[in-house]
Specification:
Aminoglycoside 3'-phosphotransferase, Chain: A, domain 2, globular, binds 2-acetamido-2-deoxy-1-O-phosphono-alpha-D-glucopyranose, two-stranded antiparallel sheet, binds magnesium ion
């Protein structure tokens, strides 16, 4: 395998001789490797993309190319370093954005950005602030991008589409588990109309669709040595979606006092101080382009995305665990319970969240 990895890496336009290719990180979806070259040459990241989840990898890479090109123009115009502040895709020797091997696996390469730090969770309010700023700035730089992106994950954050999948999953009952899920399916029904009403605002154009990241957890941001944001990475899910989905998913992951899959739901609740710091950071950048309707719906978006996640985890449990990797038998059910607890906590805090967003947004308007 080692030799094979070097051979694969050598299909790309790498500078310097490759010394070794070794595994990197703990991603749940793709396989990631670090490509070490001789001294004084750049180093690289090699990835085998997951073809089960991403059905059109060429289109996905084209999306990433369009987005990184746009970001680089912006970074150069503002005097920044385009090789450090945005991902740089490395093409193959034939000029392609991917290498397709004999097993029909897709491989891609990007430049490794030296001297950076990543975090697995926001261990301080300052990091939450920086994370918010990172996504706000990312969206702000892309707010004027006109070129459409391919819809490589149809219906990803579209709850109408998710209900269609859900209704099919419940009616097929592939793993025979629905009979034991009366309480949990009740949760889904209880919020169905409320979630569809929110979705209608997107369908009616009240909430605009923009270029967004769609996987805004903190580990997808590179920080510099002084913990200032440098670069947003993992662009596989860049899509035309709403900014609210990025914001809501970030609150779901940053502000949870417990784990996404906490077995003890008493650990799970929304931490208001983390929510506040993330929001301050996010709005310090995003306030320049967000519309009033987006700002008004920010708090609800955290509830929407958390609900969507309850539905997706439960649906995967009903389907017999075919999408998310599980570490034990009822892992998806445990995840759904933990996320439902978080949903209830967000719901309890929605009034206060709205007050805070309103206050910060007025302060920023006054300058
Ligand atoms: C998946 O593996 P990760 O964290 O990048 C999923 C997200 C979910 C998340 C839940 C393409 O993302 O939508 O929110 O798990 N990504 C995809 O942990 O389905
Ligand atoms: Mg990801």
């Amino acid at each position: 395998m080692k030799d094979k990895l070097v051979q694969i890496a050598n299909h790309f336009c790498v500078e310097g001789k490759i010394k070794i290719v070794r595994p990197l990180g703990e991603g749940l979806i793709n396989d990631t490797y670090f490509v070490e070259t001789e001294a004084d040459y750049p180093q690289y990241i090699l990835q085998r993309k997951n073809g089960n989840i991403f059905k059109d990898i060429p289109a996905m890479m084209e999306n990433i190319y369009k987005v990184t090109s746009h970001l680089k123009k912006k970074i150069i115009a503002s005097g920044g370093d385009p090789l450090r502040e945005a991902m740089t895709l490395i093409v193959t020797k034939d000029g392609n954005l991917y290498y397709l091997d004999e097993d029909a696996e897709y491989w891609t390469m990007s430049l490794f950005i030296e001297d950076t730090i990543t975090h697995q969770y926001a261990s301080s309010l300052e990091l939450a602030y920086q994370g918010g700023k990172g996504i706000g700035k990312f969206q702000a730089m892309l707010a004027d991008m006109k070129e459409p992106l391919a819809d490589i994950l149809p219906g990803f954050h579209n709850i109408r589409f998710r209900f269609k999948q859900w209704d099919e999953a419940v009616s097929n009952d592939r793993a025979g588990r629905v009979k034991d899920l009366a309480v949990e399916t009740g949760w889904i029904e209880k919020y169905r109309q409320e979630m569809l009403s929110f979705r209608e605002k997107v369908e009616d154009g009240i909430i605009p669709v923009r270029v967004t990241h769609n996987d805004t957890k903190i580990s997808n941001i590179l920080f510099d040595q002084s913990d200032e944001i440098l670069c947003v990475i993992d662009l596989d899910t860049v899509l035309n979606s709403t900014c609210l989905n990025d914001y809501g998913d970030a609150i779901r992951s940053y502000a949870n006092a417990g784990l996404e899959d906490d077995r003890d739901i008493d650990n799970v609740y929304m931490k208001m101080d983390v929510f506040e710091s993330y929001t301050r950071g996010y709005l310090s950048e995003a306030k320049t382009f967000l519309s009033q309707s987006e700002i008004k719906n920010l708090a609800f978006s955290a509830k929407y995305i958390t609900y969507e996640q309850v539905l997706r985890f439960l649906m995967d449990y009903i389907d017999g665990d075919i999408y998310y990797r599980i570490n034990y038998d009822n892992h998806n059910l445990v995840r759904a319970h933990a996320q439902y607890k978080l949903l209830k906590s967000i719901e309890e805090h929605t009034g206060k969240m709205n007050d805070f967003i309103h206050r910060i947004s007025s302060e920023l308007s006054k300058g």
